[in-house]
Amino acid sequence: MKKFFIIITTLLIATSCSKQQARKPISKTDGNFIKESIERNKKLIASEELLIDSIIKKDTLKEYIASNKGYWYKYITKIEEETASPVKGDIAYFNYEINDLNNQVIYSKEELKPQTYLVDKQNIMMGLRDGIKLMKKGETVTFLFPSHMGFGYHGDDNKIQSNVPLICTVELKDIKKDTTPK
Questions:
Q1: What is the average per-residue pLDDT within 6-29?
Q2: β-strands 91-99, 166-176: how paired?
Q3: pLDDT tens, residue by residue, 114-131
Q4: Half-sphere exposure of residue 132, counting CA atoms within 13 Å on the CB side?
Q5: What is the pLDDT of residue 178?
Q6: What DSSP assignment string belongs to 28-50?
Q7: 165, 101 in Cβ contact below 8 A?
Q8: Residue 27 above 80 pLDDT?
Q9: What DSSP assignment string belongs to 56-123?
Q10: Mean pLDDT of the region 132-157
Q11: Helix (H, G, I), strand (E, B) or coil at 162
């Protein structure tokens, strides 16, 4: 019995000191999923941009501006005087409405209620996050957002489905400047 115990102990010590070999991956990916996903997204964006372009061409009374973030907007009410736009840390007070590209109301101003947004420190729809910073107090702007600037692939878990481009009309009521020391 003593001999058996010594043999087992020796085997345990010998095997515990050996180097472990790295395991090789069982499966390899060839990158097709990512390539296919990129192609699907390019086609989706192109089709949404065609729809948005047709809306812009039909609206001959207003001038649309293309943002460098991939959405378009027009002024309903524009303030010409030089006043400040919201910047990071400011509080923006605004009303807005969300429509689909057929201009059917998805969420009315009444449903959405007046909004308070701590600029760049609060999570809101990506397009609005950027668009609000282009506005001045008292302005009303209509934004045309491709789905990736709206609620994207996920939707909003309520009325907005996956990959829905949106029209948002925003009225910036007030801006409270960030007064905290930098």
A1: 63
A2: antiparallel
A3: 999 999 999 999 999 999
A4: 28
A5: 81
A6: ---SHHHHHHHHHHHHHHHHHHH
A7: yes
A8: no
A9: HHH-TTS--EE-TTS-EEEEEE---S--PPP-TT-EEEEEEEEE-TT--EEE-HHHH--EEEETTTS-
A10: 96
A11: coil
